Amino acid sequence: MAATPIDSSTSDDRHLVEASRAGDYNAFEELVRRHSGHVYRLAKAMTQSVTDAEEISQETFLSVFNNLETYRGVAEPAAWILRIATNFALMRLRNKRRKPNLSLEELPDVEAALHEHTRGTSWAKKPDEILLDAELRGVLQNAADKLPDKYRLVFLLRDIEGLSTDEVANTLGLTPLTIKARLHRSRLFMRQEVETYYQNHSMENHTTRPAV
Predict the structure, then answer these.
(1) CA angle 65, 167, 183 (to 5 degrees)
(2) Which among 148, 157, 160 has a CA at the least distance from the CA of 185?
(3) Fewest Cβ atoms nearer than 10 Å: which of 44, 143, 151, 202?
(4) Between the CA atoms of 139, 141, 144 and 149, what dihedral angle is there, to the nearest 10 degrees?
(5) CATH architecture of the domain with residue range 1-101
(6) pLDDT 10s per residue in the chain (212 long)?
(7) How far is CA 197 from CA 51, 96, 139, in A?
């Protein structure tokens, strides 16, 4: 007898996985709807390619569908799905011999994340020291590009995608302690880059200000 369809719109992810296993295609479509944006954003941030991101998204959810029976529920479905997407993205980058790129244009929350971890720094903009958002974003982009791959991925998954430390650890197959250490170094580096930018900008304005 066929399984009774569930109300996918109000079910949590684990129930959606179980229902998808039982043949409820509406449940699987809801699972895709909930996580396709996260998968695409992750793939686009890593590959810097719309085409690659679209193809990785398709490959990810095809793999999710084909491996529903292997999901054991140890990690949250969201972390499981992102781990699959990460693996496809890394595989594609290895094939193209490109390093992962973290696109800050695609990740608008990065400035809030940095602000949270740079308390004590004055972010106020004086009338004669207005910083263009595009200019600061460029600083952040350059800083992220300098991060080694292993730090960039942790920064992206933890601070941008909002996974917990344990979820990032499960996604990347690392220990929570390793994730915390890499995240700390990533945040510290990003903070130092932004603070250096502000200091240099302030010094430039001071030296070029005409005498009264």
Answers:
(1) 135
(2) 148
(3) 202
(4) -150
(5) Orthogonal Bundle (1.10)
(6) 445 555 555 578 999 999 999 999 999 999 999 999 999 988 988 888 899 999 999 999 999 999 999 998 877 898 889 989 998 998 888 887 655 555 554 543 444 545 544 444 444 444 334 344 667 777 777 787 788 878 888 888 888 778 889 888 878 888 999 999 999 999 888 888 888 877 776 666 555 555 54
(7) 33, 33, 7
